[in-house]
């Protein structure tokens, strides 16, 4: 379960901010794989597809950790 706030050196950071940073690292890896296999050639709007991929991964990991 993801705590609502995490203390980093006495400074409180929202739990979702830490999750967003972790998802960005995972997204960066998935983005590289998708670019390598040529998935973006089939997307109508590649930046929009990247944003949707990030939101889907964030939502999936967020729901997994919050429940």
Folded structure, characterized:
This protein has a two-stranded antiparallel ribbon with strand order 1-2. It has one domain. The protein has helices at about 15-35, 45-65; strands spanning about 5-10, 10-15. The chain is about 65% helix and about 10% strand. Keywords: Cell membrane, Membrane, Transmembrane, Transmembrane helix.
Number of DSSP helices? 2
Biggest pleated sheet: 2 strands, antiparallel
Percent helix, as a range, is 55-70%
N to C succession of SSEs: EEHH
Computed structural class? mainly alpha
Low-confidence stretches: none
| Widest β-sheet, arrangement of strands | 1-2
* Coarse shape: elongated
* Oligomeric state of this protein: single chain
- The radius of gyration over CA amounts to 15 Å
Average pLDDT score? 87
Number of domains: 1
Task: State which percent range the strand residues make up.
Answer: 5-15%
The number of distinct β-strands equals 2
Distance between the termini: 6 Å
């Amino acid at each position: 379960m993801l705590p609502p706030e995490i203390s980093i050196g006495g400074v409180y950071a929202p739990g979702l901010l830490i999750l967003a940073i972790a998802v960005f690292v995972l997204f960066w890896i998935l983005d590289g794989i998708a670019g390598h296999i040529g998935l973006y050639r089939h997307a109508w709007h590649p930046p929009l597809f990247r944003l949707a991929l990030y939101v889907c991964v964030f939502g999936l990991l967020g729901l997994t950790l919050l429940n």
